[in-house]
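Record type: monomer structure entry
Structure origin: computed from sequence
Chain ID: A
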Amino acid sequence: ETNVQYQALSQRSPLLTPETLESLEVPLRLAPGKALQLVDQLEHMQAYLRSNPQGLTYNQLFEFLYPLLYHHYQAIIQHFPNPIEAVVHMFPGGPEGNKKEKSLQQMLPLTARLKNGMPIYKALQQETRKRLAHKDCTQSIPQAAEKLIKQCDLSIYEAAPYNQAELLLIAGQTFPQSLKSAHPSWKEGRWVEKVFRGQMPAEVLSVLPKLGIEIAAFADKTLLHQTLNQPQIACALIDQLLAQGVDIEERDLAHRTVLEAAMDKRLYPVVNHLIIKGARGVWLKVALEYFKALNPADKQSLDYFKQLELMNPELLWHRSLDTLLPQTGKGKVIQGTSSGQRVLLDELQTQLFDPQGQFIKVNTYGRRKVGRLYKDGYCLYLKQYPEFPGTEQGVSLLLHQVMGHGAPQGELFCIEGIPYYASQEVKGSTLQDVLYNRRLKSPQPQSHVDAYLKHLPPKVLSEQILMAMLINPEDGKPDNYIIEPLGNDQYRLVGIDNDHAFGPNVAREERGVIPQVKCVLYCLDQMLDPVHPDIWEKFRTIDSAQALKRWLIKLSAINNDYTKIFPNREHVKELLRQKDKESFIGVAFTSLMLSRLYEKFVRLQHALSKKDQGLTHLDLLKEVEPLLYSRYNRGFEKTWPLDKGNRVWQRFITIDGPYYGKDKNGIPLSSHSMASFFTSLKIPLKQDLIDSVRK
């Protein structure tokens, strides 16, 4: 470190010339073997002290370590009883000079013997040969350290683990290259055990990879969980393990994440630290019980729990329900398909209904009215008379099962006989507002769009584009996507209106065959980017049959839940007949739709398997849906004039715009009715449809 500091200083100061540094003997260098000699001398000193527990004089220790030097000083004392004269002899060239300086040969009795029995003259000969051998031969500090580390046996310090740790840390931080040739005793796995027993500091774990030690090779897959046995140093241990690539979501033999285990043990500081580090995997029941145990005065832990909610959509959804539609309280009793009986509190009813009892619409886009409930930072949106709530919930389930995100959590509620689809708030701007300026009635400039879309994480977006290929959104226009901020100048897209999905690519109507699938994701510049390697591997190896089977089991349960909160078939049929308020209370899936979904999943996996990584999203669309590719590829074959707005908007309006209506501001409006969508799905729009889905 001193050498480095001097070199840095010499670059800043003109006074420290190479000649000046040389006169200061900088950089510091050592004679070969000097470092090892120092270690040997220290070990000899320790051994000699241990063998003489009754005590030693300084002279005795001096004679043992440096016998020749000891005899030299004894001779000086005899020749110069006056200490001042002795000092002048040892340091010649003083103010008065030293005319009487004598050599060792003159000072010492050459025939006398050292304590080890060697004659003094032989000891002098050996010392002379060493000096001649090392004349003009020096080592840099790193060279000396490498030899020292290569020969130093750490096992001799077994009784002093913190001394071992200090050597490991100094070597790892200052001489990492030397660790490749370290003594075998440095490369044993016992360091991991000592760290987890608290005998060594956690920082030692950072040195082990430099020694070629893989931590996972010396313990099972519960290292993170073992840190909880040392609560005082758990956070430091966790940091070191994560720095070496340990998965923060790994599970122990009880299938618990370390976050769940820390919550069970009520280790509040550790839980907070894990949340900071990005842990989000936690069973809902464990998280809710942990929240109930939190001290209301512990603001820090409450704030971190809020942060966990933002990373865990399921947890945020249930906390929102418990806050805005609790299970008990004073108000209007309502029924949810999954959450059961809830209460619309009197204090919140005015947010949904005006004094005349009319539903308050807060949405700018869309044909159906959407209301809003909010309290204590939680927010839910309720869509009145949703068209296909079963499909909406089905899309959300599939996206969360495969991706863990992509759509808000949601559930159907019955409030005084009227269906409302409640969904979790997604913070951010709509993609519509990012692409199009409603006030100016013109597309946003490319620079404005890039400020958002160039900050979509490639892995997340890649996953979402592939899922769009599976679900076939019929209404994937820009106002049905929210650009959700993730922090650190990152965003992700979330689909917020997914009830028109799983349809065919085209549909036959009176005006002829028209495109059914419309999706702005296929207009993004990132369609020309390769499928992210992690997503390429993930989708290639998914067991599609099992994944869809699990999904269908959940859909069947949802369909049964719909029957429970809307038990009257005649009422359900009436909801289906209402003009501009049609609501299909059930899960409208046919065997044709499901077989189409499975076949497409298989085609997607086949396309990924037969191609090397590097396949673009547009290339993959060509393999999976050739008809869709032929439509959207047109948007990438031409150069769009940026003076007319951003490329994404121009592509979307050109390719999908003709199949939408438009409002007075030029915003695309959905034009497909429930009847036309049913027809495209080959579902007969008859009253016995209700009976068929309730068998």
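Annotation 1: The chain has 33 helices and 17 strands.
Annotation 2: The mean pLDDT is 85.
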